[in-house]
């Protein structure tokens, strides 16, 4: 069995990249330097996920609520996002990774929106892995957008109310064509998911770490995978049923 065929590897990993500002304070760095350090951590994490067979990696770069941060920080984060996209395009092509963005783009600059669309179109054909960057994203916004779409379909008589099932709803939230989130990782020591992928992570396993994002390593990512392997994912069934199914499949 190759690594990519290892069923114990989560197929969809989501990461809340938290702790950049606290890292900067800890290291007595200038304001914003923590975000710059955090940006550099993503590349090895992406490469490692592709290497071990993760099919989708979704990272929380800027939430709907982050617009409430000081304007200098918002401006810095937008500038770093633009830098990141320019840097990632050749990397995505090299490693044949599809790059996507989810979130409310209406508040982003036309220049940034155009760059995001260009990156998506340029890498859309790649199927080895999908890297999604959540920008101006919130899980409640995502669900409400899906609800509005379905409501309009009902209004236009393209869909019956009775046809709105969890399966149908899943097709209209962000990343509806990808597998649900298997493992959600949050760095920085907080024990919450902060409005991230609320629908998509309904049955995800969670890994919380005190490690600040700029200090997060491939070694800790592997540890998170080990923790994931040790979890029994029952999806509503009993442990006895899960064991019986494993026995039958051997």
Automatic annotation (TrEMBL):
Note one Pfam family from the annotation.
Answer: Prenyltransf
Catalysed conversion reaction = 8 isopentenyl diphosphate + (2E,6E)-farnesyl diphosphate = di-trans,octa-cis-undecaprenyl diphosphate + 8 diphosphate
Enzyme's top EC category: transferase
Q: Which family does it belong to?
A: Belongs to the UPP synthase family.
Which InterPro entries does the record cross-reference, listed alphabetically?
A: UPP_synth-like, UPP_synth-like_CS, UPP_synth-like_sf
Q: What is this protein called?
A: Ditrans,polycis-undecaprenyl-diphosphate synthase ((2E,6E)-farnesyl-diphosphate specific)
Domain of life, source organism: Bacteria
Paste the cofactor note: Binds 2 magnesium ions per subunit.
PANTHER family in UniProt = DEHYDRODOLICHYL DIPHOSPHATE SYNTHASE 2, DEHYDRODOLICHYL DIPHOSPHATE SYNTHASE FAMILY MEMBER
Keyword annotations for this protein?
Answer: Cell shape, Cell wall biogenesis/degradation, Magnesium, Metal-binding, Peptidoglycan synthesis, Transferase
């Amino acid at each position: 069995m190759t690594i990519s065929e290892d069923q114990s590897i989560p197929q969809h990993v989501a990461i809340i990249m938290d702790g950049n500002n606290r890292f900067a304070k800890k290291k007595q760095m200038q304001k914003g330097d923590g975000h710059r350090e955090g940006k550099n951590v993503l590349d090895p994490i992406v490469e490692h996920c592709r290497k071990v067979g993760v099919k989708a990696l979704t990272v929380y770069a800027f939430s709907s609520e982050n617009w409430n941060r000081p304007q200098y920080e918002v401006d810095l984060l937008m500038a770093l996002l633009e830098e990141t996209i320019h840097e990632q395009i050749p990397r995505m092509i090299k490693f044949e990774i599809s790059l996507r963005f989810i979130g409310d783009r209406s508040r982003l600059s036309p220049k940034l929106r155009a760059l995001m669309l260009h990156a998506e179109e340029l890498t859309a054909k790649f199927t080895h892995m999908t890297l999604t960057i959540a920008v101006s994203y919130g899980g409640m916004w995502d669900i409400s957008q899906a609800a509005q779409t379905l409501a309009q379909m009902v209004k236009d008589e393209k869909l019956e109310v009775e046809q709105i099932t969890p399966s149908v709803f899943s097709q209209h939230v962000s990343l509806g064509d990808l597998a649900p989130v298997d493992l959600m990782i949050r760095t920085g020591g907080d024990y919450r998911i902060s409005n991230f992928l609320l629908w998509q992570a309904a049955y995800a396993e969670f890994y919380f770490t005190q490690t600040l994002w700029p200090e997060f390593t491939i070694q800790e990512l592997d540890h998170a995978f080990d923790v994931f392997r040790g979890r029994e994912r029952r999806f509503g069934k009993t442990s006895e049923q899960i064991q019986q199914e494993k026995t039958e499949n051997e």
